[in-house]
Amino acid sequence: MNKEINMLRNEDKYALEFDPREYLNEYYLIQPDVEDRFVVEFMVKALRKMPSDLLTLEFGGGPTLFAVATLAPQSREIHFCDYVTASLDEVRHWLADEPDAFDWTSYIRLSLEIEGQPTTPEAVAERRTEMRHKVTRLSRCDALSDAPLDRCQLKYDLVVAQTVTDTAANNVAEWMQIMRNIGTLVVPGGWFLISVLTGTRAYIVGEKRFPYVDLSDEDIYRGYLAAGFDTETFYLERIDAPTGRGYAGVASATARKLTH
């Protein structure tokens, strides 16, 4: 895919304008909401169908660690990547337990609750330690590249991309290519789980607007098909957004990669 395009790529707009701490303070500082619960519930249900020793990649995780809180118990190792260096720095601060790191306690507690685990301070501390132990690699990634992790040759049992595939694309055709690119990182028989915003062409952080591609259920289905996934294993759920969010809702989907 030709990356030398005249228009500013969505990823580059994020690299130039995205402020990770502003984003965290705006969307994650308060307690988890109904959308957060939906996304975590979807992950928990999907993970229950998978083995317990996954080599996992969170692709385009931004500055957030809520997904890692859910992925940790069934992952033997988690690699984390993002296009924006400042977002990786935020994650690095948390992994190093630095004093100014963002507090993910409420999201860790949410994961434990949905899993049916105790949510005591001791249980939260144990999950926090597990997350820091299992995230073993941070790196940059590029969803628009046919080598999205550059020269990395690893393939993963599970790749998770939470609200990133739709941010990197300018249109549905480009999104399809992104699905193919990221899909190359999944082993045959492995899983690819995504979440996307629906009913919007932009996402607002502070006073900045970041473009999104709006995807239908059929688009998402065709994206998995184009990326070489078994559509018989395709599963999708949607939730409506609370009033005033500026977008219609969130869709989460998963499918297993074909083995031949």
Q: How would you describe this protein?
A:
With 260 residues, the chain is an alpha/beta fold. It has helices at residues 10-17, 20-27, 34-47, 66-71, 85-95, 105-115, 121-134, 165-168, 172-183, 217-226, and strands spanning 54-59, 75-82, 135-140, 156-162, 186-198, 202-205, 208-211, 229-240, 249-257. It has one domain: Rossmann fold (3-Layer(aba) Sandwich), CATH 3.40.50.150. It contains ten helices and nine strands. A seven-stranded mixed sheet has the order 3-2-1-4-5-9-8, with helices on both faces. It has a two-stranded antiparallel sheet with strand order 6-7. The protein is globular, with a radius of gyration of 17 Å. The model is unreliable at 1-8 (pLDDT under 50).
Mean pLDDT: 90
Beta-strand percentage range = 25-35%
Summed up, the domain count is: 1
Top CATH class: Alpha Beta
Q: Any idea what the shape is? A: globular
- Unreliable stretches (pLDDT < 50, length at least 5) are 1-8
Could you give the distance between the termini? 24 Å
Q: What's the helical proportion of residues?
A: 25-40%
By CATH, the superfamily comes out as Vaccinia Virus protein VP39
Question: How many individual helices?
Answer: 10
- Helix and strand composition category: alpha/beta
Q: What is the second-level CATH architecture?
A: 3-Layer(aba) Sandwich
CATH topology grouping: Rossmann fold
Biggest sheet descriptor? 7 strands, mixed
Number-wise, the strands total: 9
Radius of gyration: 17 Å
Strand arrangement, major sheet: 3-2-1-4-5-9-8
The string of secondary-structure elements, in order, is HHHEHEHHHEEHHEEEHEE
